[in-house]
Amino acid sequence: MMAISTVINLFCDSWQLYRKYILKEKDLDGFIQESEELFQKYGQDPFAKDLLLAVTNEVERKERQ
Fold first, then answer.
1. Is 44 left (phi over 0), alpha (psi -120 to 50) or beta?
2. What is the number of H-type helices and E-type strands within the chain?
3. d(CA 8, CA 23)
4. What is the pLDDT of residues 8-23, one digit of tens each?
5. What pTM did the predictor assign?
6. CB 20: neighbour CB atoms within 10 A?
7. Which end of the chain, N or C, is less surrounded by CB atoms within 10 Å?
């Protein structure tokens, strides 16, 4: 189980990733790389995986629109 401070940092990092690619960037290769880096940063924790997968799904959904 992650410490609360780690979870807060994960949410902040995920938000920054989402904001960057939903509003500005269209480089999905960069998105994939940054997502993988965050997943590694948080020790491949299952919660990090689920949160990053949710961000990925939303970015892909918005990209298709």
1. left
2. 3, 0
3. 22
4. 999 999 999 999 998 8
5. 0.88
6. 15
7. C
Q: What is the largest CA-CA distance in the chain?
A: 37
3-state helix, strand, coil in the chain (%, to 5): 80, 0, 20
Residue 40's φ and ψ, nearest 5 degrees, are -65, -40
Helix H, strand E, coil C: the string for 8-56 is HHHHHHHHHHHHHHHHCCCCHHHHHHHHHHHHHHCCCCHHHHHHHHHHH
Name every residue whose Cβ is closer than 8 Å to that of residue 47 and which is 6 or more positions away in sequence: 2, 7, 10
Q: Give dist(CA 43, CA 24) in Å, integer.
A: 28
The residue type at 59: V
